[in-house]
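Input record (one chain):
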Amino acid sequence: MKKTENCKLVRKKEIAKGIFDFTVASEEIALNTQCGQFLHINCGDSTFLRRPISICDAQNGEVRFIFEVKGEGTSELSKKEEGDYIDILGPLGHGFEIKESVKNPVIIGGGIGVFPLYKLAKELKTADVFLGFRSKDRVVMEQEFEAEANMVIVGTDDGSYGYSGYIASAMEQYLNSHECDMIYSCGPMPMLRAVKKIAEERGIKCQLSLEQRMGCGIGACLVCSCETKNDGSEKYAKVCTNGPVFYSEEVTLND
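The corresponding structure, as predicted from the sequence alone:
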């Protein structure tokens, strides 16, 4: 059983309105983090349940995570200042599987789903990356991904920056003329459904990181259950322990 740790907040920055970039000190978490895992964070005294937040990067005794203020918990967390301590449980979950046999990987993220893909891009080095955002004022981490990837395409739903339209459409157009033997994705459910459909129609292996509400974060409750398929039969899996990363053929992604 993993233990909670009080981690010192060493860097804090608001990188877009309501989106905060935190780095905490933790040798233990940094040493054991795999791409796609998450932290379960005690946001403060006014919130009972911890909040699951994906790990953006982990190295040299430091762990970076980025989150958007969406409710009371993340609002309280955003008020932490450098030097404060944050109660963190992690790293948790089953992350992305990186195979040496994969030669032409594609990474596609949408919104806050781009953050857990950064460490993956750093480790793959050769990925072509697609990042989708609602509008120009929400675009973040473009230069950081460019420093680690083979190519980066940024798109906005409203056409205010980069590719105009949904980023899954940009990836689909790219696949018409480029080889790909693995797709890694994280983002909102409509995007994941589109990525799953595109990958499976083309026979491309695809790993999806699901964003799900969680209670305990360690598999003791059923709050984060999702419908999966195993040998053709439907069942339920826990996103916090069996995921958050699944192969596309394992999950149904039903409404």
